[in-house]
Write a structure and sequence with these properties.
Layout (H helix, E strand, L loop, with lengths): L5 H13 L2 E2 H8 L8 H7 L3 E4 L7 E4 L1 H9 L6 H8 L17
Antiparallel strand pairs: 1-3, 2-3
Helix pairs in contact: 1-3, 1-4
Length: about 100
């Protein structure tokens, strides 16, 4: 059963996945005054993201494996392993151009 907040949770997780985010940035961007829009809290409660503390550094927010799985299940990120298996070696299928050698 899909939760009514799932589309917003997916947006949040996708945003976090794009680049490292500090906890302060996440809270600033995803803060809401509506008690019914608990996107950040729901994502944390469902184990999709975690806070990482490092002495002397900002607290960072990262996706968990469950968060990446949730994105993958909803078509927001590709299943890299499955994609690699389907397309063969790196130079097969046009994924990466074959090296070009020039005569000196």
């Amino acid at each position: 059963m899909q939760n009514a907040l799932d589309p917003l949770i997916l947006d949040l997780l996708e945003w976090i996945e794009r680049e490292p985010r500090s906890h302060a940035d996440v809270i600033d961007v995803w803060r809401t005054s509506c008690p019914r829009l608990t996107v950040w809290e729901d994502a944390m409660d469902r184990g999709f993201a975690t806070r990482e503390h490092a002495r002397g550094h900002e607290t960072m927010v990262r996706l968990t494996a469950a968060g990446r799985d949730f994105l993958r299940e909803h078509g927001r990120i590709a299943d890299v392993a499955a994609e690699a298996a389907r397309s063969g070696p790196p130079f097969a299928g046009g994924r990466i151009a074959a090296p070009v050698y020039f005569a000196a």
